[in-house]
Amino acid sequence: MSDATPSPATTTREAQDPRPPLSCYIRTLNEERRIGEVVRAALRVAREVVVVDSGSTDRTQAIVEAAGGRFVAQPWLGNGAQKRAGEDLCRHDWLLDLDADEILSDALIEEIRALFAAGPPPLSVYRLTLVTVPPIGPAWEGFALDPRAKLYDRRKHRIPDHKAWDQLELDDREPVGALKGPLMHHSFRDFAQYMAKWNRVSTVRSQETRLKPLWLVVLRILFARPIYFARHFFLRGLWRAGLYGYCIACGVSFGRWMRDVKMYERHRGLGDGGEDKG
Fold it and tell me: 10 Å Cβ neighbour count for 218?
């Protein structure tokens, strides 16, 4: 699926490379703050890192190339479609899907190396565990974890070509492996950015997903927000992050409620169909 046939010199270098035959792709838009660290960590286990950029105006390109990544300009196609472009740009069939704020831990790097040590992994897809690193307080290790299928063989799995949804859709019968090493997720730099991300995400999800019945949308607007809060603060364990965890639980519950309001607007013929590029 690569867009170019490897040269003999490239093939020789590949054979001598001790890293697994693995490609990593990353979507970016103005990610100079952390992208260098993300690329350098990924290159410890992947033979290439392809950065698919949708129009950065900061130093993202220079930082990516200095860190050893391959920078490719690609106008925004939508959340899933942009990842599809990344899949197609990679040389290897085994892929690692990272966001520009996700840093492989030492433990996860060693676990991935061990997975490939005896040849191709026994399964075709593996979940990684995202651990949020908040701007206040320690990493949320042991709670509010987010397992996601991010290591996979593209000959068997592809990211959906969708404007909103950008995660692998796996059959319940599909055996899925799980790696224990943490993927450190620096998902927001402050509360203002956290809420701005939810504003964008809620717009995309309200516009690009199946329209729920009006009666259900109305019930959610009236009654679901405390349920959203309880799910994150109590069930996902954000109470363990203290006052800041309470603030984030309030934020995520409001973000999900915004999605409901925007879906109600869609029922009434409103909504701008904006897209999230983050």
Answer: 13
